[in-house]
Amino acid sequence: MGGFFGVAARQDCVFDLFFGIDYHSHLGTRRGGMAVYGKDGFNRAIHNIENSPFRTKFNKDMQTMDGIMGIGCISDYEPQPLIIRSHHGTYALTTVGKINNVDSLVQRLFDTGHAHFLEMSGGEINATELVAALINQKENLIEGMHYAQEVIDGSISLLLMNKAGIYAARDKYGRTPIAVGKKEEGFCFSFESFAYKNLGYTDYKELGPGEIAVITDQNCVTLLNPNEDMKICTFLWVYYGFPASSYEGISVERMRNACGAKMAQRDSVEADYVAGVPDSGIGSAVGYSNASGIPYGRPFIKYTPTWMRSFMPTIQTKRNLIAKMKLLTVEDLIKDKRLVLIDDSIVRGTQLRETAEYLFEIGAKELHIRPACPPIMYGCKYLNFSRSSSEMDLITRRVITRLENGNVTDEILEEYANPETEKYAQMVEEIRKEMGFTTLQFCRLDDMMDATGLERNKLCTYCWNGKE
């Protein structure tokens, strides 16, 4: 998916920028970037982080760059930040989101006289370059950022830095977050609010949906007021977010604990241990254990010295292998044991099926799988949370297509998404048999939404029920 960080300070900002970006490493796997502005103007560095983490790749840049303002990112695909020269002057730009109507937007720009776009190695247009071109259609930056958000189908949040300050624009429905931190020396923008805490910043505010604000070393000013409607991504709490993260005032760990507790309240399984698949399944497992009275155990230990979440190859088969290599088993907590195993979700099913097979090989007696979110029915339209190129990569869609002999409509999918229906129960049982679990029970959508503590109409649930 990706994340970003920006800082405006009275003195050199590179230390804060470097570590603020590094704290977003759990959100992206492909590229990192830093851009600073100082007495010598703009300076930028972009590196591939597929085979080495951000901190290693950028340590040398951190030693040589200097500036009083800077923005940077962890990106799951396109190289950024970009340095743009236009009638607005020179600025640096980084974005997080997904643009579904790239072709129509490009054609619109060509029709109005835009000359060209540079293609990336895969033949696609850099989404951040496209956003810059949209911003440049308007007479000032604020109008341009607002215009880009209005015409993009999908979502976009961005940081833009020029010599006057750093501007942030949160997606118009707030699908992704932007927090503002403050300390005596300046202000920062961050996708993850925890990223600035150890750097001495305190919480100042969170931008609302569609809000545009600017920071300098002196202050933070709202330039466009937020919208009332919000559809923040619920998967932020379920999967993306680091346990110390907080969105809309609700911490990831608190939400996961509540989610696990709600799962336990609907369950009656007997087991020796409750365990979470590291890292994103642990919080829900703790909540489940506390509510059920079943002891919490750690049959999986994540090998953290070298296998970090962001340090993953792009080829799916290799990702599956490394996902397995990162987890070490404690065999005496597995052999002859009945385990409740909680993972954040089941997407393709490949990794969890292989995990189950391995646990049974070690000697697990029973394996009761409890995903901490409902069955995923749709590929996300708003964030690049999966590398799947087709919804048929989803195990739910493969099973439903098989059960319905290929005749799958939105109406049929709605039935399968409803946990009260016979079709839902049939789908879950087919997934259980295909995966080889003893039992399988997903978290319900209503319980998961309630666990966030937010009003349900403020949460995006598209990947589970197709509703925008």
UniProtKB/TrEMBL annotation:
- Copy out the cofactor comment: Binds 1 Mg(2+) ion per subunit. Binds 1 [4Fe-4S] cluster per subunit.
Enumerate the InterPro entries for this protein: GATase_2_dom, Ntn_hydrolases_N, PRTase-like, PRTase_dom, PurF
Q: Cite the binding residues for [4Fe-4S] cluster.
A: C233, C380, C460, C463
Cofactor(s) the protein requires to work: Mg(2+); [4Fe-4S] cluster
Q: Give the metabolic or biological pathway.
A: Purine metabolism; IMP biosynthesis via de novo pathway; N(1)-(5-phospho-D-ribosyl)glycinamide from 5-phospho-alpha-D-ribose 1-diphosphate: step 1/2
Recorded GO terms, molecular function? amidophosphoribosyltransferase activity; iron-sulfur cluster binding; metal ion binding
Q: What is its EC number?
A: 2.4.2.14
Q: Name one GO biological process term.
A: purine nucleobase biosynthetic process
Where does the record place the Glutamine amidotransferase type-2 domain? 1-218
Q: Superkingdom, according to UniProt?
A: Bacteria
Catalytic reactions on record:
5-phospho-beta-D-ribosylamine + L-glutamate + diphosphate = 5-phospho-alpha-D-ribose 1-diphosphate + L-glutamine + H2O
Q: Which keywords, in A-to-Z order, does the entry hold?
A: Glutamine amidotransferase, Glycosyltransferase, Iron, Iron-sulfur, Magnesium, Metal-binding, Purine biosynthesis, Transferase
Pfam families to which the protein is assigned, alphabetical: GATase_7
- Residues bound to Mg(2+) are S280, D343, D344
State the family it belongs to: In the C-terminal section; belongs to the purine/pyrimidine phosphoribosyltransferase family.
- Its name, as the record gives it, is Amidophosphoribosyltransferase
Species of origin:
Anaerotruncus colihominis
Give the classification, highest ranks: Bacteria, Bacillati, Bacillota, Clostridia, Eubacteriales
